[in-house]
Amino acid sequence: MHILFLIVALVFNAVANLLMKAGMIQAPQSGGMAAAARHYLTSWPVIIGIFMFALNVLAYTQALIKIPISIAYPIMTGTGFAIIGIAGYFLFKEHLSAIQIAGIILILMGIIMISRNHAGPDQPAARSGYESPRVSADC
Hints:
The chain has helices at 2-24, 32-42, 44-63, 69-92, 98-116.
């Protein structure tokens, strides 16, 4: 179940980033912070992107209940980077060089290596280097 939260968080994060990019394409290039703030408050893609970031945090923190951060964070950032890079190419016509494509492939390979070495979310928390405090019923 917690891996599902991580996947949902990853999707929310990627969609939020893409919405923020889409919303900022029409942002004013001059006018300072006042113009930027006005744009943030009136651009629906930016507003929805901010909301998606909030949903991302909710799902990600639920995933962290059982998934060690040493596994969750690389999956979240690395896979997110790959999704954003590829989506940026198709949606925003951003250039991907051969080096960037190779980097995305290496990142995905690293994520596979990291996640395959993990014993699973049902293992005791002590295996991840953190042991949650125990609360005694005698207190």
